[in-house]
Design brief:
- With 456 residues, the protein is α/β, with parallel strands linked by helices.
- It has a domain of 318 residues: Alpha-Beta Barrel (TIM Barrel).
- Helix content is 33%, strand content 19%.
- The protein is built from 15 helices and 18 strands.
- A 5-stranded parallel beta sheet has the order 9-10-11-12-13. A 4-stranded mixed beta sheet has the order 3-2-1-4, with no helix packed on it.
- Helix 7 runs parallel beside helix 8.
Length: 456
């Protein structure tokens, strides 16, 4: 007898919404049919609601170890579950940063003890080139985000170190996830604007050119070394132009694509929001004007942008509520990613199929999580699903969110939150958290030798 049956569902299959019933056994999807006609241990009546793959957020900062006043693995994973995310990948700028075997093992132990969603861990790249191999063998998902300019955590490196690191990453067959901002342009702009304390000055200290120049340099080094690359949180249309040109050349030469992601805060916020947000709107890369926002959305629609990721980077309110120069960069976002994207579909800003691919299938494919049976509503894949009533539109309220940060840059925005979140066949959110500490499992990267099915 199967463990779970979801009946009276609507699924997106072969580019159409179709009625379906989904049979789940031992955490995996075992059948997808119009009428299952089976007895299951548990039955969920979707009552005509949409059932789609749960989100995979490849860019979160859960702040543990070392910064648990901002977030920890339990609260961060609860926020993920409540927002329809069942797999996350954590980035390395914690205290200590994840830059060697010891720090990796410390983070893995904490995450395994606390996380209610499945997870991967990225390895940091600083002046630790001799440690990259041990990080790869420990099972990091990828290397990054690799900071080309100063940002939260102080892990930025110069071009020479980046090139050497990419050489190692190429040898491993790993992926480099790059935070592309040009540090010399940043320093020059910050010097010119040192007396400007208006919140909007932050957008001018890291202008479009700052990002585009760094993306150009990153592309050159990736092609020179032959390493696979992924550009984090693209926000400037000139940077997308650099990537589009490289994609065209790569297709002609049969080279792998350099992929990229966009965040909801760069899709749905702009420089118009500085007056409302003040220093709470500070993030890197910064808020851009409406021209960039429209270009990003068009690029997500046409596939030039591969992934939507939150760059969930929470800070305490008292840390953010200071002048723009002192305020740390970063905003929370893991819980609001899927609700905002579902609302964008509702508003016809992008098709449902494109949204599903950008939040589940593409992240799994690019970051190697498909080898763990993640990212698709298909037989044999993990039953990581969300049940969504697309008519149930709510307004985002920071006080109602489940992370430690009870604020959000999307306060008052319309959104569609999931009714139920299912992770490997377990209901982990149904209006409240219904999962225990540490039920999430670690999804090791390709460098760690492990039997995937046995690991599951």
């Amino acid at each position: 007898m199967p463990d779970l049956l979801i009946k009276n569902a609507k699924i997106f299959y072969a580019n159409y919404l179709q009625p379906a019933e989904i049979v789940i056994d031992e955490g995996k999807i075992s059948r997808i049919v119009k009428e299952a006609d089976v007895t299951a241990g548990e039955i969920i009546d979707a009552d005509g609601s949409l059932v789609i793959p749960a989100g995979i957020d490849v860019h979160v900062h859960f702040r543990e170890p070392g910064l648990t006043q901002k977030e920890d693995w339990y609260t961060g994973s609860c926020a993920a579950a409540a927002g329809g995310i069942t797999t996350v990948i954590d980035h390395p700028n914690t205290l200590p940063p994840t830059v060697d075997k010891k720090s990796f093992e410390e983070k893995l132990k904490l995450a395994s003890r606390k996380s209610i969603v499945d997870f991967g861990i990225h390895g940091g790249v600083t002046n630790n080139l001799d440690k990259l191999h041990e990080l790869w063998e420990e099972g990091v998902t990828a290397f990054g985000e690799i900071f080309m300019a100063e940002s939260t955590g102080g892990l930025n490196i110069d071009a020479t170190t980046l090139e050497c690191a990419l050489g190692f990453i190429k040898q491993f067959g790993a992926l480099a996830a790059i935070h592309a901002e040009d540090d010399s342009i940043r320093r020059e702009c910050e010097a010119l604007l040192k007396n400007d304390v208006s919140p909007s000055s932050h957008s001018r200290t890291r202008p479009n050119l700052c990002e585009a120049a760094a993306v150009q340099k990153a592309v050159e080094l990736l092609r020179k070394t032959g390493a696979r690359g992924h550009i984090c949180h693209v926000s400037a249309f000139e940077a997308l132009g650099v990537l589009a040109r490289d994609r065209y050349i790569a297709r002609q030469k049969g080279l792998p694509t350099i992929t990229c992601e966009v965040t909801p805060h760069h899709l749905f916020l702009s420089t118009r929001d500085w007056d409302r947000l003040g220093s709470f709107g500070k993030m890197n890369p910064p808020l851009r004007d409406r021209r960039n926002v429209k270009f990003l959305l068009n690029s997500l629609n046409d596939g030039s942008v591969d992934i939507v990721a939150s760059d969930h980077a929470p800070h305490c309110e008292n840390e953010k509520d200071v002048d723009i120069k002192t305020s740390p960069a970063g905003v929370p976002g893991v819980e609001t990613l899927m609700p905002l994207m579902l609302m964008a579909v509702k508003k016809n800003l992008l098709p449902l199929g494109r949204m599903i691919d950008a939040t589940s299938a593409a992240p799994a494919r690019i970051f190697g999580l498909d080898r763990h049976h993640k990212g698709r509503l298909e037989v044999g894949f993990d039953a990581d699903l969300i049940i969504v009533d697309t008519k149930r539109i709510t307004h985002i309220k920071g006080d109602h969110l489940h992370g430690k940060s009870k604020w959000t840059p999307f306060e008052g925005f319309e959104a569609i939150f999931p009714k139920i979140t299912i992770s490997r066949g377990d209901v982990i959110w149904d209006g409240e958290i219904s999962a225990s500490y540490g039920r999430g499992i670690f999804l090791p990267g390709k460098g760690k030798i492990v039997d995937i099915d046995e690991h599951h």
